[in-house]
Amino acid sequence: MSVNVIDGRQLAEHLVEEMAEEVKARTAQGYQTPGLAVVLVGENPASAIYVRNKIRTAEKAGLHCVVIKLDASCSQQALDEVVIELNERDDIDGILVQLPLPAHLSEERIINLISPEKDVDGFHPMNVGRLSTGQATLVPCTPLGCLEILKREIGDLSGMHAVVIGRSNIVGKPMASLLLQANCTVSVVHSKSVDAASLCRQADILVVAVGVPELVDRHLVKPGAVVLDVGINAIEQDGKRKLVGDVNFADVADICQAITPVPGGIGPMTIACLIKNTLAAAKQRGVKQPVV
Ligand code: NAD
């Protein structure tokens, strides 16, 4: 079987170009430029890289971007106040607080505090509820990026068996909801599942979001499956740092219909979907430019 490696970078660039056109058209119609605020607490190097990439892409799409950096020792009250102020700012359509937060700060509190209509990460319980009841809402960016890829790769997903490995609030659970909405038969397997392997081997679509380097080998993959590898794991190989996914790409690629690489697969699509959510939030809010 020839290997179809899904180029998430190219797909994401294409999406961002399309959205840049849309942003231009909206501002020409008198709407305010969509605004994205990103809050970064502390010095986590991976978080700093993610934030830089998000802002770079948002600026490419023509968004108005605000980055607020807080010291790792900042208090819960100080962080709360930043979010409350962003909730009230007219120029900001989307708010993202980069996770993880330092251990003394409550992620749950912050997720609940962000105004649901500006919650471009889609983590607020109101948006989670809307997603699971099939209402239009802001959907977490990574599963949204996965769905975008599947629609382009497969088209109609009706009746397909999708297996999601991992049940996090950020990836696994919203992915399962989206796949159900797309009429798949969905199985979710996790660390406590019994005989997860036999379920995985039945999957037409296998989405892997676990955080264990190269966990999935060819024995877990049905020939002809579409495999989406969400994992991003930094490992040491021959004295060098390297990023790998949760799927053993070299072992699996030749039996798949299509597979995403790491890096260059789901990661760029996640960022493109953050822009998509910010644009959606801006459209929903519909704020016009001030008349001068
Ligand atoms: P998480 O730690 O919150 O959840 C991991 C899930 O995997 C849990 O539900 C757990 O039950 C399950 N699990 C653990 N070991 C397992 C095993 N042996 N078999 C089956 N299931 C098992 O992680 P997360 O936030 O969902 O992230 C998962 C991975 O995806 C990480 O590598 C993370 O860095 C990556 N990630 C990537 C992006 C992206 O933009 N590409 C976005 C979010 C997360």
Automatic annotation (TrEMBL):
The keyword Amino-acid biosynthesis applies. Keywords: Amino-acid biosynthesis, Histidine biosynthesis, Hydrolase, Methionine biosynthesis, Multifunctional enzyme, NADP, One-carbon metabolism, Oxidoreductase, Purine biosynthesis. NADP(+) binds at residues 166-168, 232. Pfam families: THF_DHG_CYH, THF_DHG_CYH_C. Its EC number is 1.5.1.5, 3.5.4.9. The keyword Hydrolase applies. PROSITE patterns: THF_DHG_CYH_2. It comes from the Bacteria. Pathway: One-carbon metabolism; tetrahydrofolate interconversion. GO terms for biological process: L-histidine biosynthetic process; methionine biosynthetic process; purine nucleotide biosynthetic process; tetrahydrofolate interconversion. Residues 6-121 form the Tetrahydrofolate dehydrogenase/cyclohydrolase catalytic domain. It catalyses: (6R)-5,10-methylene-5,6,7,8-tetrahydrofolate + NADP(+) = (6R)-5,10-methenyltetrahydrofolate + NADPH; (6R)-5,10-methenyltetrahydrofolate + H2O = (6R)-10-formyltetrahydrofolate + H(+). Residues 140-284 form the Tetrahydrofolate dehydrogenase/cyclohydrolase NAD(P)-binding domain. Belongs to the tetrahydrofolate dehydrogenase/cyclohydrolase family. This is Bifunctional protein FolD. The lineage of its organism: Bacteria, Pseudomonadati, Pseudomonadota, Gammaproteobacteria, Vibrionales. The gene is folD.
